[in-house]
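Running this now, will post back.
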Amino acid sequence: MLGDKRGRKQDKYVRDYVVFDLETTGINAASDAVIEISAIKVLGGRTADTFSTLVNPQRPIPYHASQVNHIFDHMVEDAPIFREVLADFNTFIGDLFLVGHNIHTFDMKFIWKAAEDYWGKTIANNYIDTLPLAKQCLPQLTHYKLVDLASYYHISTDGAHRALADCSMNQKVFEKLGKELASPAVTANMRLCPKCGQFLKKRSGKYGEFWGCSGYPACRYTENV
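Update: finished.
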């Protein structure tokens, strides 16, 4: 949904959400463009609807990007532009939580900037990034890419790096992480910020250890160990 303030990151499991993924021409939200967006709407833990389209970036797709996502110029030449697609995506997501892997530092930046450029508003939906969830729930792992998590949970990685396939993979991973978050082994070592809902982390300061919000500097909540 559009609003005046960007949505806030939350570290938790919800049963109703939209998991989404972007493919882009590069990693810079200020200068690169979206070439594919896909999403799966989940209600009550079950798939309710899907959304997927290629996007015409109105520029050539760099070779290195095509080598990763296998999307080439001829595939997007008749696709809609992102202004049209983002409007449809905004209708699709409504006010549901957004879920994705590494979206806090990547995907959200693209859709925030585009909405602000197009309409002077932003995407106000709160969101959940499965990357920090996985690090909290599965500290024994050494790699946390989406395909690594899928492999850990014996989820198929076929079609990885295309948006809809990554959404399907991520949905299954998120449901698994939801069960991890409910387990006593994880909850015993988990603390959430009472102000913003993100994980608290132990940190060391001038006067010793303290709990600090992982959302710092946006959230500066602290408490004594």
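Residues 191-224 form one domain. More later if anyone needs it.
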